[in-house]
Amino acid sequence: MIDRYNKTPLYIQVKEEITKAIISGRWEVNSRIPTERELMENYEVGRATIRQAIDLLVSQGYLYKKQGIGTFVLRDKPSLGFEPLISLTFTLRTKGIKISNKILDENFFIPAEELTNKMRWKINQKCLYVKRLRTVEEIPVAIENSYFSQRFSNNNSKFDFKKSLASMIINDLKVDISKVDQTITIRIPNSEETSLLEIDETTRVLVMERWIYEENNEEPFYYLNFIVPENLYYVPMINY
């Protein structure tokens, strides 16, 4: 139950109540959760509180959003997403699987306001953009769009972007990571994505967005947009 006299923020209380519903099985994997309005009425809180709670559960891997349809239970245990921070490169190589990263684009630019807002950065800030195609045993598995803040960009010349970016961030740059935010959505791919991933237009893709923050800085220093075919990463099929 929500306790307005409790010092714990309301959105955290709502998040905990929803988590209990998922873990207990009351809200099953593959099911669509109640609408925002239904949740507002059930927990007697405002829309902003519900959205904060839902966004937090999405970032923790309990829920995911399907554009135009609703929010669904992804799993009954938390997950960091389809590429853990220790990196897909490290994980697959330890299993003896051949992986490679093809650089599709690498350049400096000042992003437009819409992209800047998505990055959670200040406007008119130069960034380094690296676009890679990830392959496993020569099969395309993901498109990775990485955006590094300007304070990192000055050091880029000494890095090989065909290698693990996670290793570079942790071991080479020695970034003191304070937090990681993440969202997961599912959608139909565009023409470029179907071509690069060698899928047809009916194969849906999962899109993970990740913001990595370092200590003593309010802005993320790294924004990742990671796209993978749905059939290469388990998400419950939705009947609608």
TrEMBL record:
Can the keyword Transcription be found in this entry's annotation? yes
Superkingdom to which the source organism belongs: Bacteria
Q: Which SMART domains match?
A: HTH_GNTR, UTRA
Q: What's one GO BP annotation on this UniProt entry?
A: negative regulation of DNA-templated transcription
Q: Keyword set for this entry?
A: DNA-binding, Transcription, Transcription regulation
| Molecular function in Gene Ontology | DNA binding; DNA-binding transcription factor activity
- Family matches, as Pfam families: GntR, UTRA
The HTH gntR-type domain extends over 8-76
Name under which the protein is recorded: HTH gntR-type domain-containing protein
